[in-house]
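Chain and conformation:
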Amino acid sequence: MKHRRSIDLVASHEAVAADRETLATLPQWYVLHARCDACRHETRIDRRALAYRCGKDLSLAMIGLRLTCRSCGNRRGNHLLLGTLPRD
């Protein structure tokens, strides 16, 4: 699946275990996106600001549970998407 900015949202060559992976162990070429299940609003998450605010040892599974949509305020069913930046 591709994001509108041509960022791969699904890494086909590497599997990331969301329950074991943390912000500290996630490679730097991964980007985080959040999508609201209710209004389909999608935005990029600044992982450095998130690590500063919540701690770098927070697992990706816990991030997905804590997401709140800034557009409609929905807190249920929001998705955390992982993407990869193009690498040379």
Observations:
- The chain has one domain: 1-88.
- Strands lie at 30-35, 42-45, 79-84.
- The radius of gyration is 13 Å.
